[in-house]
Design a protein that fits this description.
Length: 379
C-alpha cells in the first residue's frame, strides 16, 4: 500500500480469517461507502486468471451452494491504528472479461451485516409486556454469533403494553421491524463495524450530532490545504416551518404545533437558517395521531431535524494529505471556504476508494445554516 497505510482483508463463511496471499495480490481496488443512516456497502475488484482459486472462494456464496453467508472484513491501518471500515456480507458477484483470454475482472459487491437481518420474515412473533427497547434488544441477540453487540438507547416514552389488553407482534423481518420501531420514537438504526475486526455495534437510538470534531478540512490555504475538492450548496427549498397537525383521538381536538428542528443532540451548526415561508407537515408520511401528544411532538422534532440540513458540502481528499481517515456520523471542521461556509459540519457519508499506491475519500457534509456558530474552527 502506501507509507504509513496498511490494509487487512478477512474472508470467511461465519468467522472471517485473514485472506491468503493469492487473494491480496489479485486485489485491485476497494470501494466502501458508509452512510449516517441505513445500510453501508462495499465492492472488491480482483484481476484473476481462469485458474484462480478466487473463482471457488467467492462464487461459492451463490445460490444453491452450502455457503449462504460469505463475510468480508476490511481494516485500514493508518500509522499503526486499525480502522475497521467494513464488516459485511457478499450479496453479488460478476465476472468481466479481460483484455486477454486468460484473465478477467471479478467484482464482489456486498452490504453490511444488517443484510443478514433482512432474510427471514418473523411476522407474528409475540413480544408480551416488552417495550420497543426490549424488543429491539431481543431481536439483536440472535446475531451475537456475528459479533454484533446491541447499543440500545431507551426512549423517553417507554410504552409497555399490558398483555391482558394486547400483545405486540413482529411485522416483517428483524431489520424492517427494528427500523419501524425506530421511526415510531424518532430514532435511527445502523451497524457500526469495529472497534476490532469481527466486532460490530448495532446502534438503536437518537441521531447524535455533537461531540469532539475531527481535524479540519482546509481549502484555499496554500500549504495547509488538505482536500483536493470541496463544493458547497445552499438549498432554499428547505425553508418551511416544520409543523405538527395533530388530532386527539378521543376528544377529536385539532392542534397545529410548529416544531423546532433544534434539539440538544442536534444543535445549530449555522447561525443563519433558511428563512421559512410556508408550513410543512411532519406527519405527512406517518399518522402521528395514533401516539400521545408528547410522543407525537418528539417524533415530529426528529423528523424536522432532518429537513433543516440546508447547507450541503461535497468533496474529496487524500488520506495521506489529510493525516487520518475521515469517519461518517461525526462532526468535522471546515476552514478557508469563507465566512458563510466555514465552521462545523456533520459527516453524512464517506466513500473510501483504495487502490495500490492510493487511498482517497469522497464525502458529503451537511449543517442547518450559514455562518459558523463558533469563533474558531479547531485545527
Amino acid at each position: 500500500m502506501l507509507k504509513g497505510i496498511d490494509l487487512q482483508l478477512y474472508v470467511g463463511p461465519l468467522v472471517p480469517i485473514p485472506a491468503s496471499r493469492a487473494v491480496i495480490e489479485a486485489l485491485n481496488e476497494i470501494t466502501v461507502t458508509t452512510k449516517d443512516e441505513g445500510q453501508s456497502g462495499f465492492q472488491l475488484s480482483f484481476t484473476i486468471s481462469t485458474q484462480s482459486p478466487l473463482h471457488t472462494l467467492f462464487l461459492l456464496s451463490g445460490g444453491g451452494t452450502p455457503i449462504k453467508i460469505l463475510r468480508v472484513v476490511i481494516v485500514a491501518i493508518y500509522n499503526g491504528t486499525p480502522n475497521v471500515i467494513m464488516d459485511g456480507v457478499v450479496t453479488k458477484h460478476e465476472i468481466v472479461p479481460g483484455g486477454d483470454a486468460g484473465h478477467a475482472t471479478l467484482k464482489v459487491t456486498g452490504e453490511d451485516l444488517s443484510v443478514v437481518m433482512d432474510q427471514i420474515d418473523f411476522s407474528g412473533f409475540p413480544f408480551p409486556a416488552l417495550p420497543a427497547e426490549g424488543r429491539v434488544a431481543l431481536m439483536l441477540l440472535k446475531y451475537a454469533a456475528l459479533g454484533i453487540v446491541p447499543l440500545v438507547i431507551p426512549s423517553i416514552f417507554i410504552d409497555v403494553v399490558i398483555p391482558t389488553s394486547r400483545i405486540p407482534t413482529q411485522q416483517g423481518t428483524d431489520l424492517s421491524y427494528i427500523q419501524e420501531l425506530a421511526s415510531q420514537v424518532g430514532y435511527v438504526f445502523y451497524i457500526e463495524p469495529g472497534p476490532l475486526p469481527g466486532a460490530n455495534i448495532a446502534y438503536w437510538g437518537p441521531q447524535i450530532k455533537v461531540g469532539a470534531p475531527q481535524p479540519a478540512l482546509n481549502i484555499n490555504m496554500d500549504a495547509h490545504t488538505n482536500v483536493e475538492a470541496l463544493t458547497f450548496s445552499f438549498d432554499n427549498n428547505l425553508n418551511a416551518i416544520p409543523t405538527l397537525f395533530y388530532q386527539e383521538e378521543k376528544t377529536k381536538a385539532f392542534f397545529i404545533i410548529p416544531i423546532p428542528p433544534i434539539t440538544p443532540l442536534n444543535p445549530p451548526l449555522g447561525l443563519i437558517p433558511p428563512i421559512p415561508n410556508r408550513l410543512e407537515s411532519v406527519s405527512k408520511d406517518d399518522d402521528l395521531s395514533k401516539y400521545s401528544l408528547p410522543r407525537a411532538i418528539t417524533v415530529g422534532v426528529a423528523k424536522a431535524a432532518k429537513w433543516a440540513e440546508a447547507v450541503t458540502a461535497r468533496g474529496e481528499l487524500n488520506v495521506l494529505r489529510y493525516g487520518r481517515i475521515l469517519k461518517a456520523r461525526q462532526l468535522v471542521g471546515v476552514r478557508g471556504a469563507g465566512t458563510a461556509y466555514d465552521g462545523l459540519y456533520y459527516v453524512k457519508s464517506v466513500t473510501h476508494k483504495i487502490k495500490r499506491g492510493e487511498y482517497k475519500q469522497s464525502f458529503e457534509l451537511s449543517r442547518n445554516g450559514l455562518i459558523s456558530t463558533i469563533p474558531q474552527v479547531p485545527v
